[in-house]
Amino acid sequence: MKTYIKTSKNFCIAILAMAAIGILGGCKKDFLDRKPQGAYTSDTYPYPKGSGPFDGEIFAAYDILRSYDCSGSGFIAATGIRSDDADKGSTPTDGPTSLEMDNFTITPSNVLVNDLWRGYFNVIGKCNIVLDKVTKDQDPGTPAESKVYAEAEAKFLRGYSYFMLVRLFGRVPLIDKLYDDPVAQSNVKQSEPAAIYTLIESDLQFAGASLPPSWDASKFPGRATKGSANGILAKVYLTRQNWGMAMSTANLVMTSGNYDLLIPYDDIFKETGENSKESVFELQATASLTEKRANGSQFASIQAVRGTGIWNLGWGFNIPNTRLEAAYETPNDPRKARTFLYAGGTSVFGEAVPASLPNTRYNHKIHSNPATRNAILDNFSYWMNIRILRYADVVLMYAEAANELGGTANTTAALKALNDVRKRARGSNAGILPDITTTDQTQLRSAIRQERRIELAMEHDRFFDLVRWGTASEAFQQAGKAFVPGKHELLPIPAAQIEISKNVLTQNFGYN
Amino acid sequence: MKRIFTKFSVFTFLCLLFMNAASAQNITVKGVITDGADKLPLPGVGVLVKGTTTGTTTDASGSYALSAPANATLVFTYIGYTTKEIPINNQTTINVQMGESSQDLEGVVVVGYGTQRKRDLTGAITQVKGDDIAKMPNTNPLSSLQGKVAGLTVVNSGSPGAAPTVRIRGVNSTNSSSPLYVVDGVHQSNIDYINPADIENIEVLRDPSSLAIFGLQAGNGVIVVTTKRAAKGETRVSLQSSAGVQKVVNTIGVTNAAQFRTLYDTYLAASGAGQMDYRNYTADTDWQKEILRSAFLSNNSLTISNSGEKTSTLINLGYNTQEGVLKFGRFQRYIARVNEDVKITDNIKVGADITGSHWNLNGSSGDLNNAIWAAPIVGVRESETAYYAMPNFQRAQVGNPVARIYQNDGNSINKGYRVVGSLFGEVNFLKDFKWRSQIYTDLGFNNSRGYTGLPFTVINLGEGAAPTEYFNNPNARTSVRQASDEYRKFQQDHTLTYEKTLNEDHKVTAVAGFTSIFESTTSLSGDRTDIGLNIPNDPSFWYLGVSDKSNPSNVTGGGREVSSMGYFARVNYSFLEKYLVNATYRRDGISRLAPQNRWGNFGGVGLGWVISEESFFKDIKGIDFLKLRGAWGTVGNGQGIADYIYLPGLSTSNSGVFGDNIYPGVAPAYIPDPNLKWEVVRGTDLGLDIRALNNRLSGEINLYDKTTKDIITQITLLSSSGNTSYRTNLGTITNRGVEVSLGWNDKIGSDFTYNISPNFSYNKNKVESIGNNINFVLFGNGVNNRTVTGESIGHFYGFRQVGIYQSTADLDKLPRMSTSLPGDIAYEDVNKDGVITDADKVNLGSPFPTWNYGLNVNLGYKGFDLLLQGQGVAGNYVYTQRRTAQFTDVNYEINRINAWTGPGTSNIEPTLVRRGNNYLMSTYYLEPGDYFRLRTVQMGYTFKPEALQKAGVKNLRLYVSGQNIHTWSKTTGYSPEVPISNILGGGADNGVYPLPAVYTFGINVTF
């Protein structure tokens, strides 16, 4: 009995103690209510006042477009080095993955194709986030215009990214929304190019109809406009050989009054030529003493002169080759000097280029102004914008579509457009680049194709042009490259992506 | 617990008392009792004439004297030490060394919010004595655990001040597999601030039933560290000091200048490129030799302790310094600890403990791969400020390895300060109850400043006839940077313990308690480049304020807050010392999860059966103790959850650029799963403890089966939302294994003692599912490591090499890739479809060892002692990623001398031509990771106490020690211990820091 009493007394104390513990815990009910520190969630982000409440998400997509994945070695190799007008450059043994592109020895494990795949899908994902947000936005305070602009801008960037993907890879997964169940969307099968093009056309049509013709020039130079969307859409139609729509869509750009061919060819590619009236869609990059690279792009430095000392401007990839050199109808075509930067020559800014460099030719169009380099104290020109679509390109697309449609009126229009481009190229030198006068469709076709090659040399379209003209096989045979028709028009689907998908993605023809 | 044990011993003596009484001529016997390990005198040791009540205890100097029959036997007993019986046999002096060892069953083991006798344990807990840690010349005590505990994987690094990677029983999770450290009660993620010489014991808790009391913190196991307390009843001053030198024993074989030229010429010819003109490149530089050095190392610890009736005090001062073998790294650490316990009354005790530490790190800017890759044909420098650039073929990618070291030497000042303190109060009441409250804090401040000076002159030797150029970059400007971060932790623990023995048969210990932890950090850093002035290379100017604010600067800052709390209870019950039951419960919550998912219940049950206590066992000779135990438990892995990922986090690192305007861009950082919860680790343990042949043989065997469920899997949503990820609970991983520890402790004659204790463990890891029913795979380190359902976590994934295509005939005959050429690696056509495609990639083995083993041998002869320790792993592979550099032409590793150059030249080494096919992940780049390392050879001499007494010295030991003297391994890198801290992409040797051999001389002296 005594033991019992004692034990129960002990128990009482124990219970009291437990109660005390409970109080210690209980009074701290919010002890576990903590928040992330110094970081926003989408619920706490104080969206800035800009042109619309969706700008933040849209700008993230622009960020990816100028990043290494979309504008770095992969982009340069696939659009430039892979063409018949450029060689790999750099030093003989540097950049074997780019060499694989140049020589058509590319394999699915090539890292550059993975960069491109990842990059453009990253943009598409960012666009889908914007579109999702626009759809779900219930705020009566959101201006209707900003919703339309946001949707249009996201669709433009998505359409452009899919246009790149479909030309690079052919069949790719078609993802046009955010899925409710994230797991379900982790692995989506590829769609046929026709289905991808349907999405591209509808995206760009919406963007072309809804984007503003221009943005506040002091705040948003280079932001995608109605003209950008119609310009890219014209190229989509051209690629699809929908000549009528290509011509009329290019014409929308040409009659918009926002563009002309007045800026001299030499100036287009300078820092001072950025966002000129020549610029239809241009990826924006900038640098300052404080941020030399974070807001820029590696695009120019990957190609810039690979010298020593103050001529160590970059890696020297993507050099114009002797085939391109020979393609000019006259060596005096001023565009040649603006396309080729020769070792031992003089740059457009008057610099004497050293004679002993790993290569004798470099891409002159991405060469930066030494004054900018000295001001920013950086030789790797991360501030150089990337001219994705120039007005001259649109004019030549118009000419090409018009000529393909045929008929007197169209031929006249084609000749006019073609000669407008030649006129600017000729500059004050009346003795060269005479107007084209032929009305023969075949002759005019080759004249327009020749003009595209020269006017837009080293500007990301040569390979795609050869493929859509059906002349790739012939051109690469002449260039002595092991191009296999039916295979090398497309890049391999990246091995890493097939692995991640556990073979839901399937390889392109000839790469297995 | 100790109190009960004392009672138990008294009871034993009483039993002995009533047995029989011998009678003979009495003589006076005296002697000194010392600790077998540190040779210090032991006060308070019980000395009893066997079978009588006659007895005494040793005094403060460990001496005793008593009168006993000349043919009687003396019994020496001391808590925590093995009881010894020595027949007198007419000797008048009997000096005894008491053995204290981890095999001792009566030893007390810390089990989390309490202690338990080793013999009563039902889970897998291994104790490592502080002395075994203090002996090693490591600045981080965890490094010294390597090879000592079965089931514990430790990967050491030779980098000064670096903490080793620690894994307990394999890899549990795809997210976090690092154990929790509990240092005198405070929860830590590292123990960098502990002086290795100031540790009393380390316990490694491995099974879920033992871990359950720690709830959400314990998913990856717990390592409990107990620091030293003042020894009872005396004042002691002891100094432990060692100093030595570290040397890199094996460098990576690369070609010298002549060999390089031969290979490079062959390569250029085979690639169809023009030959290199070497006229300006005539040097023969061993770049590894240029960046490595013999480095100094020293560890020092001074302890002053005093213990009286009411108070006990311990003061410890430590100083460690370690230079890096890679020029010019250096780590220094100063530690001071004060511990004070005050007994206010017999029932009330309070105490405080405070540790202050300060470290100082001079990081090295040396890059080991840089030295492997740099061409040997280039010289180092012309003067101290003018260094040669590499030839054009690698100039843009590979810098001068020595220039970068000298350029940045001394350019950064990194200091850390940390204070860890605790206060406790303990009240014993109502005889059987004890209330203990303890509060802890851990405050850290790290501070760094640095400088970027003007670069050295670069000398371009030029290609062929090109002239030598001297270049000073006109764009370079000096800049300074500063960073500081602050870290705080507050923890409180309150426990009520009930301890009772009923009718001598039923022993109950129950504990209930509450704990909470709050942690936060803040950080601030910035840099400023001076456009106009050259900031001098003098640390007194290295502050942002030195340059005018019109100069470009970047500043950033951040912070973090997390908290957790839990309630817990545990009951230990033993009946007749024979049947043991432990039951644990914990309810735990963490702030990282959504409120509705925050709390969870965890628990465990352990059962033990001491078979040797059974009556039927009395007849079995040779076995002194045999216990069978089994345990089951469930714990959580709260560490695997990144902070607050249930909330829709935003990535704000993107920017929209228009013209020169820069606008912030935002994108979801991931797709949040609001229902995210912790990973759950469940496990079953079966164990057997045995002591046999008069306690000379000890053994412990554990079998475990552990499952982690609800793995937080990161699913990359490539095609839908642009590389963002979705983290959700999908996946199950199992780890099953065996752990065996053995010990043999004996002596030959009276002077020669020896102890051999081997241990090994085997762990089989399997990913039972990942992503559950969706088609899913996780890759790490590019796609070199794969985690997929049905195979071990993070295994290497690639092709198996079967040879080299010798000729075009081989290409026609053998399965190949469309791009294969003669000289390329021929891979195995696993799926037998006649071509080599990605479908032929297979599991090539794990970066994580399946076997871990260790062998410790202690020999003692009179004053001499010899310690041998070896440790090894087996079953894993190392990926020689450093050899896959194909961004440009780099120096060749020596194996490339045998590269294929034509039919029949090699069936292993591919062509020198850099072709993508030969850089794919394959067995060609894997080396068996098995190694056995002679970890320690230590020879010491302890002076006889008598010889030292005059000088007032109680104990003096001198020793020489060698660490990592030899490693048996097939790997070609500096160390087979390559990093495995990246769970999904571990095991790559991509510039692993050398683990040097260390030769030290040391002294331990006690006054």
Summarize the structure.
Chain A is mostly helical and 512 residues long. Chain A has 21 helices and eight strands. In chain B, a hairpin with a 2-residue loop joins strand 22 and strand 23.
**Based on CA inertia axes, which overall geometry of chain A fits?**
globular
Count every helix of chain B, treating DSSP H or I runs of 4 or more residues as helices: 10
Largest interface, with counts of residues having CB < 8 Å to the other chain, equals: A-B, 115 and 121 residues
The CATH superfamily of the domain at 108-234 in chain B turns out to be TonB-dependent receptor, plug domain
Provide the CATH topology of the domain at 53-211 and 482-512 in chain A.
Answer: Serine Threonine Protein Phosphatase 5, Tetratricopeptide repeat
Widest sheet, order of strands of chain A? 1-5
Roughly what is the average pLDDT of chain B, rounded to an integer? Answer: 90
Tell me the name of the CATH class of the domain at 108-234 in chain B.
Answer: Mainly Beta
Question: What is the CATH architecture assignment of the domain at 108-234 in chain B?
Answer: Beta Complex
CATH topology heading of the domain at 108-234 in chain B: Ferric Hydroxamate Uptake Protein, Chain A, domain 1
- The helix tally of chain A amounts to 21
The shape of chain B, in one word, is globular
Q: Strand pairing plus helix content of chain B: what structural class?
A: mainly beta
Residues in β-strands, percent of chain A: 5-15%
Low-confidence stretches of chain B: 1-23
Protein name (chain B): TonB-dependent receptor
Domain TonB-dependent receptor plug (chain B): 118-222
Family (chain B): Belongs to the TonB-dependent receptor family.
Subcellular location (chain B): Cell outer membrane
